[in-house]
């Protein structure tokens, strides 16, 4: 039986241990290198350990399994010689999420409670996929690009999101506290927004401000035609971009007009930088 490594991300300890035990029984050659309880830990451990398989619970505290998969697609090394992007199995108690994940971004999906017969089918599919990969020496880059294209479909289309959830008027001014003063920052002057710990950096040509609003809360208030998300933690004003340079991993380094900062656009948003 083919040997492989796997990571389990499941916030319910009993379910995680049950899945680990069943995998050990059904696939003796599979080595579970880590078992974590939330999405951020799944991203960190996957990047550190580079497992070949990921079993991701879709609903976890903080970062969900879908968000963890997208984060990994952004941060996974894509240079020649890098480990192939992991094969993903989503685990969920909600069938609609499972079907969406399977259609777009997974080798397979499992519904809770995981049934032994169904898990055996998943193991067979994973082993077949791993055998196919082993026959292709340059599998790393194609595997990553295929995962990126699939995961991109799970990102909401900005135009569609805008039409369904557009506020009466797009945000025009951002009140930013500086000591006891409140600075009114015109949105038109903002070059980019960047999540930083518990704050959001609001960067203008002259200075930067820190606000407590999260990027997730701010995004629906910004005109998606003018402000582009280029990474899970970064949104840039489109007309502030002077140049986008693609590297061999599929990421783009953005140069801003009249500003020294350089921004990195992840692979998930590379489609924004195709020539007309």
Could you characterize the architecture of this molecule?
The protein starts with a strand and ends in an 11-residue tail after the last strand. Helix 2 (39-49) packs parallel to helix 3 (65-75) and helix 3 (65-75) packs across helix 6 (140-152). The radius of gyration is 21 Å and the shape is elongated. The chain has 276 residues and is an alpha/beta fold. The model is unreliable at 157-164 (pLDDT under 50). The strands form 4 sheets. It has a 5-stranded parallel β-sheet with strand order 2-1-3-4-5, sandwiched between helices. The chain has a 5-stranded antiparallel β-sheet with strand order 10-9-8-12-11, with no helix packed on it. A 3-stranded antiparallel β-sheet has the order 13-14-15, with no helix packed on it. 34% of the residues are buried. The protein has 8 helices and 15 strands. It folds into 2 domains: 4-152, Rossmann fold (3-Layer(aba) Sandwich); 158-273, LytTr DNA-binding domain (OB fold (Dihydrolipoamide Acetyltransferase, E2P), Beta Barrel).
Provide the descriptors you would attach to this structure in a database record:
single chain; 276 residues; alpha/beta; Rossmann fold; OB fold (Dihydrolipoamide Acetyltransferase, E2P); 2 domains; five-stranded antiparallel beta sheet; 33% helix; elongated
């Amino acid at each position: 039986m083919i040997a492989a490594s796997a990571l389990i991300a499941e916030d319910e300890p009993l379910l995680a241990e049950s899945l680990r035990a069943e995998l050990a029984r059904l696939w003796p050659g599979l080595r579970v290198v880590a078992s974590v309880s939330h999405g951020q830990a799944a991203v960190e451990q996957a990047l550190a350990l580079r497992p070949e398989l990921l079993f991701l619970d879709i609903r976890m505290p903080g970062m969900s399994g879908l968000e963890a998969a997208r984060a990994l697609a952004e941060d996974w090394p894509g240079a020649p010689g890098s480990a192939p992007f992991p094969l993903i199995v989503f685990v969920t108690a909600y069938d609609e999420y499972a079907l969406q994940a399977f259609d777009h971004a997974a080798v397979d999906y499992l519904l809770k409670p995981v049934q032994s017969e169904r898990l055996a089918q998943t193991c067979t599919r994973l082993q077949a996929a791993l055998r196919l990969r082993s026959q292709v020496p340059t599998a790393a880059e194609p595997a990553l690009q295929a995962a990126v294209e699939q995961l991109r479909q799970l990102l909401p289309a900005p135009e569609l999101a805008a039409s369904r959830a557009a506020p009466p008027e797009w945000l025009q001014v951002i009140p930013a506290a500086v000591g006891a003063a409140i600075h009114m920052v015109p949105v038109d002057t903002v070059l980019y927004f960047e999540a930083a710990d518990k704050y959001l950096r609001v960067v203008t040509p002259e200075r930067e401000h820190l606000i407590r609003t999260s990027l997730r809360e701010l995004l629906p208030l910004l005109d998606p035609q003018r402000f582009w998300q280029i990474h899970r933690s970064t949104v840039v004003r489109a007309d502030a971009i002077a140049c986008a340079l693609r590297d061999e991993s599929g990421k783009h380094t953005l140069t801003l007009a009249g500003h020294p900062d350089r921004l990195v656009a992840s692979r998930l948003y590379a489609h924004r930088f195709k020539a007309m």
